[in-house]
């Protein structure tokens, strides 16, 4: 498998964690979003949305959109599971995950923030506001105790949360109200899957 990724992309970070967690070998092909490599004709043929990640399964199949990729990985490599078999618990975990994936990320991605700035607004303030709203909701939706968001096993929720907290640190979000989330982040970052997936450990990282 080839993962088209950008080191600071939180959606790419999610997929890297899942691949590592499930022990699936892959090769990273960096796509520099800042330099616009995602807009090249060759890459647009792979991913018409011109974003990352994209996961090339073989010469004929390339999957796009991180949540769709995560669903595929769960289907073909169900162990360790990112979602439990209990349908209610699975729905609760998916809901928390989607607070990150649907409520925070879409309005904070590069294309949207650049548009916000072009309209004269402060892009950083915009991102921090949406992160605060989303993280507060996430914290209310998860279990109040346990090593991770939903007990003592890593789930899809954690895989979405930790990359978002990377952005929160990066842009100066005050995480004082999110003590539970910071504790979860710390526990996740102690695992091999998250460490290998961390932006600073990617081949295109500018922080070495």
Task: Please describe what this structure looks like.
- There is one protein chain.
- The chain is of the alpha+beta class and 208 residues long.
- Helix 4 packs antiparallel against helix 6.
- It is globular and about 50 Å long.
- The mean pLDDT is 96.
Annotation, overall tally of beta strands: 4
Task: Name the overall outline.
Answer: globular
CA-atom Rg in angstroms: 17 Å
What is the end-to-end distance?
A: 25 Å
SS-derived structural category: alpha+beta
Which bin fits the share of residues in helices? 40-55%
Order of helices and strands: EHEHEEHHHHHHH
- List segments where confidence is low: pLDDT < 50 over at least 5 consecutive residues: none
Query: What count of helical segments does DSSP give?
Result: 9
Task: Give the oligomeric state of the chains in this entry, treating copies of one chain as homo and distinct chains as hetero.
Answer: single chain
- What is the spatial order of strands in the main beta sheet? 2-1-3-4
Strand content: 5-15%
Quote the average pLDDT.
96
User: Biggest sheet: strands, sense, closure?
Assistant: 4 strands, mixed
List keywords for this structure.
about 210 residues; alpha+beta; 4-stranded mixed sheet; 4 strands
Give a brief outline of the structure.
With 208 residues, the protein is α+β, with helices and mostly antiparallel strands. The chain is built from nine helices and four strands. It has helices at 10-21, 41-46, 66-76, 87-108, 110-118, 123-141, 156-171, 179-189, 192-197; strands spanning 2-5, 27-30, 54-56, 62-64.
């Amino acid at each position: 498998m080839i993962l088209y990724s950008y080191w600071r992309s939180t959606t790419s970070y999610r997929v890297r964690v899942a691949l590592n967690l499930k022990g699936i070998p892959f090769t990273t092909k960096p796509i520099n979003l800042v330099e616009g490599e995602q807009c090249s004709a060759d890459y647009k043929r792979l991913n018409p949305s011109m974003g990352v990640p994209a996961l090339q399964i073989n010469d004929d199949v390339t999957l796009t959109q991180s949540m769709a990729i995560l669903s595929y990985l769960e289907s073909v490599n169900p162990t360790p599971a990112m979602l439990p078999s209990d349908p209610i618990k699975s729905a609760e975990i998916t809901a928390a995950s989607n607070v990150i994936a649907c409520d925070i990320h879409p309005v904070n991605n590069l294309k949207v923030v650049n548009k916000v700035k072009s309209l004269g607004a402060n892009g950083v303030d915009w991102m921090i506001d949406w992160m605060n709203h989303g993280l507060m909701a996430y914290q209310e939706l998860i279990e109040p105790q346990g090593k991770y968001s939903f007990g003592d096993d890593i789930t899809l929720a954690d895989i979405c949360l930790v990359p978002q907290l990377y952005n929160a640190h990066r842009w100066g979000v005050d995480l004082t109200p999110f003590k539970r989330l910071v504790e979860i982040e710390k526990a996740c970052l102690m695992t091999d899957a998250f460490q290998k997936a961390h932006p600073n450990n990617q081949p295109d990282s500018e922080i070495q």
